[in-house]
Amino acid sequence: MTSTKKTAISRRSTLGLLGGAALAPAVLPGLSGFAQAQSSAPIKIGFQLHRTGIGAAYGRWYERTSNAAVARINEMGGINGRPVELVIEDDGTDPKRGAEVVEKFATQHECDIGFGTLFSHVVYGSAPRAGELKLPYFVCSEGHHVASGALNRYVLQPGITDVKSQVQAMAPFVADNLGKKVTMIFPDFAFGHDHRDFFSEAIEAQGGEVVAKIAIPPTETSFTKYFPQIPRETEVIYHVMVGPAVLTFVKEMGEFFGPSRPEIFGFIDSLEAVDLSSPGLEFLEGTYFWEGNPRYAQADQSDHDKAYRAAIGIDDNGASLTDSADVSTYAHMFSCWETLNVIKRGMETAGYQGPADRVKLIEAIEDMTDMAHSDDHPQGAKLFNGKTHQVFGHQYISQVEEGRLNVKHTTAIEDGFYEDEVDYTAQSF
Amino acid sequence: MEFGPHLMLAALEGAITAAILALTAVGLSLTFGVMRVVNVAHGEFFMLGAVAAWFISTTIGGHPAWGFIAAVVLAPLIIGLLAASADWLVLKRLDYDPERTIVATIGLLYIIQQGALIGFGPNAQPVEPPFSHRIALPWFEWTEAGFEMYYPWGLSTNSYKLFIIFAAAMLLLGLWLIMTRTKVGLVMRATQQDRDMATAFGIPVERIYALTFGLGAALAALGAVLIVPVQQAYYLMGHDPLLLSFIVVIIGGLGSLRGTVLAALLIGMSDGIISVFFSPTLAKIIATLLVAMVLVFRPQGLFGKGVH
């Protein structure tokens, strides 16, 4: 028994050695690149992080994901032979502080680029300053702000599909399977308004209608008082909520309906970083969720997703390997991982050496189109639109079954296409 | 939702707001009445109560009821002691000067809030209620078939929410008994009426001040322990209770306990009803407008006794 084991191990290690030898040429150009690089100083990526404030739960996981992605990039030889370093600044999920943080990246830390912002009001607050400082600013936010043309040429969103595209891709599923009369509950700021405007449009295109729109401030802590605005004719509740009190929101919604709930379609935002088995969430059984990336490992899980989970330290239920109660923001945080890989590819294509090459970096990324499903893009294949600076990908619709989310429908990338609203490439730098 | 069930739900929500607000505001009113200290950090003691409840209940584990009972007893005690030591450490050194204590309690607010951020973290944490049963409430309507009873969507409450209202009422009654029937209450009222005279009669005014400050904070903490199972503990949750408590105390009359409780009922119920029928923002606008009106036409508050 022991001897077989030994043989197995030695065979494996031999294979490993062989593999290493095969990989060596692939690594060598990187090594020689390191030698040729004009500077071996690290490439500094300013990471605008929601470490505190209403986005803190996302911030915790955006940080872990980005650290894992950077560790992987550095293991593979860095970017253009230079190591990558994240310079983290907390923005308190506050737009005013966001602009100051961008300024710190550009002037104080001398970062090459800025990266990582999620909450759309912080993006709106920070993006103009990034443009003025000519700092490439990569957001991981979902908001339609980039593709709408409201921002500037220095702002890109290459890691996650925007809300307009997401809801357009999903509206047919809602109309065909759940119902046509929808009441929307959404947070009362830019991100929620994107949902309100674009889902209303999309469901009308499917012959449905939104019968009520209920806006709730993201800082709210008590929600029962909002629910009576739900009209009796409602067939489907469409909910998307963010902020520290999301668990209370969903619980109180369950309590409000009791045993006779309508169909419910939610954005997993309403329960990101929350354990689905929390007491009070039992009523969600059978309801549907949008997921940017399936939290629970599915039967057809790809090797890329496996590698990605392992790199960050996440189990098959989407929680931390070290603490099963520490649930991740799995549906969103892949955007950090993928954005960093896009940055790497862009910098390599542009032959990026320092801040003088920032324009070349943006142009290199604007030229990108296809992004294949790979370890760099574990969420799925994507298509980047250089004109609108926005990426388009697959969306997942999952149903709660026995307390876990099982994917029922995956949208095609084309389902989320819409007419370009801006051509950033026509703008001057 | 039809008007009838809608109003009933609004009234229930309002009653919960009013109950918690009454406890919190009475604490604020007490510190102002007895000590003439405007405690800007009052909301942070509320937050600390919620955080302590979370900490105690997760440490104890087991059935949520044990954690809850321990939190009801321990959290106000710990927060009260903390506040009393803050009084001894800070406010006493400032001779309870009204202006300087405002600045000092603003400082306390930031210290406590950032301390909670460092120790407790930036995430909201849920606390399980000791018991919770959904109670669906029926409604009646006249249809062609005659008089009918039905269960409208959403017309429901929860046994724990009803318990909050009951518990707050009992606690306020207890406080009223302490203030009017015990020696401690007598001494506190004497200090409130005339500090110098109280000192002359041998009342240890400084100890009474520390006790009052601690009691005020403990009441806020108790309010938070009661509400945290329906909300969540969060390091920024002290803001709204502070604002609403000030509104209530100003309307009710500074230092008047009866006035504070009645104003809490008024503000809590109107907040519940207006935010259900219109919007929570409008509820805050109206409450603030009410404060302005009271300040203009009746500066001593609705139940205040006027300036001495």
TrEMBL record, chain A:
Keyword tags: Amino-acid transport, Signal, Transport
Record-linked PANTHER family: LEUCINE-SPECIFIC-BINDING PROTEIN (PTHR30483), PERIPLASMIC BINDING PROTEIN OF ABC TRANSPORTER FOR NATURAL AMINO ACIDS (PTHR30483:SF6)
Pfam family name, one: Peripla_BP_6
Leucine-binding protein domain mapped to chain residues: 42-402
UniProt-recorded name of the protein: ABC transporter substrate-binding protein
Similarity comment text for this entry: Belongs to the leucine-binding protein family.
Transmembrane domains' residue ranges: none
The keyword Signal appears for this protein: yes
GO biological process: amino acid transport
UniProtKB/TrEMBL annotation, chain B:
Gene Ontology molecular function: transmembrane transporter activity
Keyword Cytoplasm: no
Listed InterPro entries: ABC_transp_permease, BCAA_transport_permease
Compartments in which it is found: Cell membrane
UniProt keywords, alphabetically: Amino-acid transport, Cell membrane, Membrane, Transmembrane, Transmembrane helix, Transport
Its membrane topology: Multi-pass membrane protein
Pfam families hit by this protein: BPD_transp_2
Main location: membrane
Residues that span the membrane, as ranges: 6-30, 37-56, 68-90, 102-121, 160-179, 208-230, 242-267, 274-297
Domain of life: Bacteria
GO CC terms: plasma membrane
Example of a GO biological process term: amino acid transport
Similarity remark: Belongs to the binding-protein-dependent transport system permease family. LivHM subfamily.
Protein name (record): Branched-chain amino acid ABC transporter permease
Organism of derivation: Halocynthiibacter styelae
